[in-house]
Amino acid sequence: MTDTQQAFYVATNGNDSWSGRLAAPNADGTDGPFATLERAQGAMRATGIRDTYVRGGTYAMARTVTLTGADNGVRIMAYPGETPVFSGGERVGGFTAIGGGLYAAATSATGLDLSIGGVRQTVARTGDWNAGDPRSGWSVLEAASGGASRTSLRVGAGDGAMAAVLAAGVQPGTLIQTFDTERLSDNIVGVASTDAGSRTVTFTQGVKYALRSGGTYRLLNDDAFIRDAGEFAWQAETGRLVVKPQDPGALLSQGAVVARLGTLLSLNGASGVTLQGLTFADTTWDGSALTLTNASANSIAGNRFVNAGTAMTLTGSSGNVIEANRMEHLGAGGIKLAYGSNGNRVSANSIAGIGEVLKDVAGIQLYGTSGTLISGNDIRNSTRYGISIKNWDGATVNTDTVVEYNRLYDTMTETADGGAIEMLGRSNLDTRTIIRGNDIRTVGGLATDGSGWLDRHKSFGIYLDDMANGVTVQDNFIQNTGWASVFIHGGDANSVVNNFAVLSNPRERFIRLEWVPSAGAVGLLTNNSVTGNVISSSTGADYWEFWTPGSYSVTGNLLQGVRGLNGGDRLSSGLFVDPSAGDFRLGSGAAAELGIHELDWARMGSAPLTVPGIPAPGAGIPSGPAFSPLAYIASYADLSAAFGTDAAAGAAHYIANGRSEGRTVSFDPLAYIASYGDLAAAFGTDGSAGAAHYIANGRSEGRTVGFDPLAYIASYGDLADAFGTDGSAGAAHYIASGRREGRTVSFDPLAYIASYGDLADAFGTDRRSAGIHYIANGRSEGRTVSFTPLAYLAANGDVAAAVGTDATRAELHYLTHGRKEGRTTGFNASSYLAANADVAAATGGDLTAAMRHYVLYGRQEGRALSPVPSTVRAAGPAPADGMLAAAGVS
């Protein structure tokens, strides 16, 4: 066995003096895994082995681990079925009660990030703060005595509570968080001094915007401010951390984790690296848990970022894949791509809880990039932007960006003058940007002026700001914004076509066109087109708002509840199938007459995955029992075109280029043969012949690999006993024996994951890991598949409308969206048959057929879900949304 077919292991019970070649310590305790990632990094550099598996548990990191060009091609992965956590936090224990529900422990000065039991706590702040009300807890400021200032403010003349705080004095290390009236951007800086007499607070450094009267602020991180359970602060005079826990027992038994490190892992000049299945946690609000600098062609897939500042930042890093990561409870933002980070793919990520400390943030933000694809991400609960594309100057131009099929819910919750998708274009260039197929719902908008708070203020679904030019806005769904679904501010040659919008507040318009006076002549709009959109309003207000709109074409839109702008618009009713139930599919035949087409609802919030799942330990790099040059060529269309079936050329390419580019073998020749009877008859178990056929013929014939060897093994106990997780052996068995024995694949990996919350958390939509887990663990644990895709579709009409009876798409929807939305997964097919005798007769009582019937026909026909109860029985409550859950199934 060569080095490239082996791996190192890291475990919490490991030892850096061991070989690192065992997944667990041996019986006599003389060898086993490493204890640290740094030791594994050194070993990979020394040996040429490129894989490290990290076992489950928490790894407290005191310094950043940096990967460089010496680490090209390495893969750092979670051990299958386990959850390793890289933590930048210090666990503080030894808390003692000090009265009033407070507990204290000695430690060094703490910042704004602390968790107990993995749950982010709230730093103490001035004001009467209440969770769920973003206006609460902020004090209204007066400008400094010399006028609006970036370095000081005055407490409001009538603010007795804050006057008392200044009179008492604030401790060293207290911070202040400020917003100007527009709430465009907040800053968190130190308090340099206070003067109770003049009501003045002076900062240690300047903030972004000069603070005018009516702006807001709050002081942070003084134990005198602690009020509610779940809050903490630093007590400077005693050198202690003070916490008011919601669960004192948890604090005393587990301690609290204080974020100390800003960056856990850094790729600096590294390429071809894979980071997969890892958790990054407990980093400071002003840091980035993962950074890539001049690092290209890397894969960041299937990881979790929690209680971090910013999840990841890319600078000068191109051709990377950022896929299927989960980011939540972020002190700042999700993903930043900056300054020459080109050709990156950001897809199928889930980003939620954005801006839990700093508010001027985004789920995904670009500046100075080109060729970025942002596709199929689910972004929720952001204090400012969902997706932000910033061009401030010549160094931050963005071109050829595609933002497609993302789901963006509840953005702009604490700021104003922004959007769910926002693009700034101050360089006044043709950006060649596409914004299509996105699902945008509820865009807030919060600001202040001299009279108080302004709700739903300057918030937009899609905001093309300050000369953003050459943008196609197409096929998006936009609902519940502040001022407009789409706002073009000084831009030229933008096209807004085939979008669906629902307007519900009197201030809201579909389209707003406005020039930028401060930009002079370039701020005038020209040649913008708004055609073929579907607009439903419950307010009666015009769907347009123009402020020196320049040249434009706004016509051919399909309207309900509003008047047309001109004769080209069409008024109709019933634009959507059932908007009260959230079904916004087209319901009006007038749409087709205007050339309007249906939106691709099924693609919104998801994207196909491109990074292979984590291979089983021992599978090697490339995956499989041995490197197959033909399988390597078959894995890539460009290699197939260049080398054909020249195995030597394929091997040479991998050695010279492929490894450093991060290329792996994803094509499984035996699984390909097993997918087709003619190939099995022709080639048997000759994998090289199978790969050669695919290169020469199969790809052009549209053949794909449909056979899942691990699912096949998992379908039969005798195969699991015989082959374990050896997929090649499973495929070979099917080709040689299983097909003629009539064996089929009955194990459904995605349904298995969907049946168990712990598996869904660990594997997401990784079929391979699911198969490995069931064979290695789940079978012996007595786990079974309880999730039924058809039942899920029967219980969720909107999903069925989007995917029909496609079981795989139903499973993917549940795992990526439905589970966290709390969707029902059960459907009482027996009750449905009992209520519909004709269906029972037609299906012969088959429960699966009954569910399929309801999905395809019964719901549309308005069929009853249960028999009419006897009059002598008490009437029970109607099932929510017309859905019935099967007994014992949540």
Automatic annotation (TrEMBL):
Top-level taxon in the UniProt lineage: Bacteria
Claim: Membrane is one of the keywords in the record: no
Pfam families named among the record's database cross-references: Beta_helix
Domain Right handed beta helix: 266-439
Keywords: Plasmid
Alphabetical list of InterPro entries matching this protein: Beta_helix (IPR039448), PbH1 (IPR006626), Pectin_lyas_fold (IPR012334), Pectin_lyase_fold/virulence (IPR011050)
Protein's name in the database: Right-handed parallel beta-helix repeat-containing protein
Organism the protein comes from: Azospirillum humicireducens
